[in-house]
Protein 1
Amino acid sequence: LPKLASTWARLVKLDGQFLARNVHHKLATVVVQLLNVKTAAVTVLLFCYYYYYYYYFYNAPTSKPIMLTDYLITVKTGNHFGAGTDSNVFIQLFGEDGHSEEWHLKHSKHHKNKFERNKTDQFIFSQIKCCGKLYKVIVRHDNSGICSSWHLEYVEVSDISLRTTFRFPCHRWIGGGFFHMFPKIKQLTCTEETIGPSKLEPSV
């Protein structure tokens, strides 16, 4: 009996140690899994935080205050037979800070009958959103009137706020011609900038 009791006690002790080891192993496994889940969650949260921080503070566009200006547009008609036009002429400006609407060149400062041969017309548009440094303009006319073809020498745009004049040479026919062979729209690229105050030309 003493031997049997001793053997039984030894077996119970071994079973207890084995059970304890299993319990500790399972607890350790659960703790590791929980730590892995927490680590993954923290990693995702940190990624989202830094992504949105970078987007809003570094990649978001900065709003610039809107600056208004006055534009003086000078248009020179060529010195060719039939160079003038009776059509409606429109212009649109494109610059580094945006583009303007399409403006109708309607009221010349010098001539009631505008866009005549070898004449210069000027137009003023006041309190317009500044387009910044100009790089191109688009000139269009609607081919209306009897003499619709038009030979355009150049366009100059003076930005009063920037105190800069941008020159856009053309030396081409726009609209009209036989069977309306000339294009109604012309894109002109800036070739020259002049720094200094702009002024109205004399009536020529």
Note: The chain has two domains: 18-62, 68-191.
Protein 2
Amino acid sequence: MTGKTHNIVIIGGSFAGIGIGHSLLKNIIPRLQADRQSLIKVTLIAPSSEYLFTLAGLRALVEPELIDGNQLYHDFLPHFDQYRVKDKPNSGLHFVRGYVTSLDEVTKTLAVRLTDSGEETVMDYDSVIIATGARTATPELKLKDQSADQAKKAHKALAAKVAAANHIAIGGAGPVGVELSTDIREIFPDKKVTVYAGSRGVMSKVQPRFAKEAEERLKNEFKIDVVSGVRVKSAEPTKNAAGEDRVLLTLTDGTTNAEADLYIPASGETPNTEFLPSTYLDSSGYLDTTPQLRVRNTKSTNARVYGLGDVTASSGGVVHDYFFQAQVLKEILLQELALDELPAEPIMTTPSGKPLAYEPQDPLAKNFVVTLGSRGGIAMTKGWRLPSWLVGWLRARDMSLSKSIMIASGKMAA
């Protein structure tokens, strides 16, 4: 690295992308020797500089006033000004508003399409961290290749449909389906809500006793119709006998006469990895990484290509996974950025010899929080059950919106 700028490029303005940006500028680069600090340039590429606090995205569908508030969407760029140093051009975060369309490991370049102009440009990198996240079947709930204004408009439109519908069908009974259905019933008690739970049933990834409790509370406390054993195969617009707009659902058991005013898919995610070489991905399209968060199947063992967050196959898609991953990647980068050249074999331990490895977490086995309306829920932390009222106090009452600024500001950086 001697005398030459080392370009670290972060792809994605997700929780993970913003977080590792703060980690680099706050906790990694300042710990290097002074002459190295000035040679490192950190660039983040994302379609928008606004971050959507997805934990509360569902709640905003029944409380749309949150969409125009100052807690659900945050412009993260001003929070990186704290790292800018006068007369040091590489300091701070360099932001490119666009999205990467391809990565060439041989030339160490990225093809980038700029959001505002649509023009294509090419950027060099020395290290690249892929943190593009995953998108849901309901695009209104995650920013993807769109401005915050576009996302807010779509968010409001879906909230208006929720308010207008008399019968809402929800596809999926995992955490998203459970939280969305109970929020709707709490705010709109006269609406009919049907949840299609699929063959695995309600909350299938938690311990059976909690799954059973969740299903019973949906049925008995919130009066939600839970249909187990089938899932929604397709949803097509139609009209009823009175000529009113409806949605015709085709179920996996062959049923085609199920109807609703509105259908919201609430299961499954698709990783944002279309721009990456197929050799980097597993069979489901997720980024295949080593326990040290290096991407597998690169052309060299020290390609300096890393993955972070729920774009990786090893992540359980929940927030706390990022923190475990980020701690490992921080230690790896601290050592690598201190060297002029990387060793022949990848760094896998701390300087004292302690192994550096992210161990995939079972996301819902010992640590999970599922809200049931705004007053309670079901949760475990480190294997301990939390009472429903405490879940209500800690999370359900405001979906942690009061803490959302901590992500954008870097207070939660590893």
Note: The chain has two domains: 6-136+269-357, 165-266.
Protein 3
Amino acid sequence: MLMGKSVKNFSLADQVCELLKDAIIKGELKPGDRLIEMEIAKEYKVSQAPVREALSRLRIEGLVVHYRHKGSFVSNFSKKNVEEVYSFREMMEPLAIQKALNNLTDEDLRELSNLYKNMLTAGKNNDLDKVRETDNAFHSYIYRLADHGFMYQVWEDLTALSDRIWYLTSQIYFDKLDEIAELHKPILDAMYERDEKKCIEAFKAHMHFVWEKIRQDEKIIF
């Protein structure tokens, strides 16, 4: 069930949490799948205590739900959940962009450009995990550059849900993964111009591209 992975070294709860999160985000564990502590502990070769703690953390992140007398399950997902994530990001990220542009240096632009190039290369190599890693890093860099601790923490908390949407939609709505990277080019270009309005418009176009496809898709199942 869990791809035969095992946990090594210390911080067992952290490691179990990351392994389970990765399996949920990538769809290896499906919505509604029951998560039995004893089975997970046996699979990962750990005691039940770190598994219990990991499941508790994943409940906070919205990836797991717990029902009394029934146990823990991978949470279900709906278009409403997706709309909430997208609409919240659409409110928050323009503020991050605005603040980031105030702190932007030439070195930052080079770093963002490198992330974009790495994303594009990963897309051309059809490396799904690397595309997501660099996509996430691109947006995370903007949030860090905004120098707003509370907003960055909210972004971090939202990442798992965003990743879950991303892994599903990237394989449905994009024929080539480098198309995902290309959606970031207008954002990068606007940042080079230090044009706040154009940058925010580019970000919203990037978000709407996928959301509109989800909204109009009557067959998509989360």
Note: The chain has a mean pLDDT of 91.
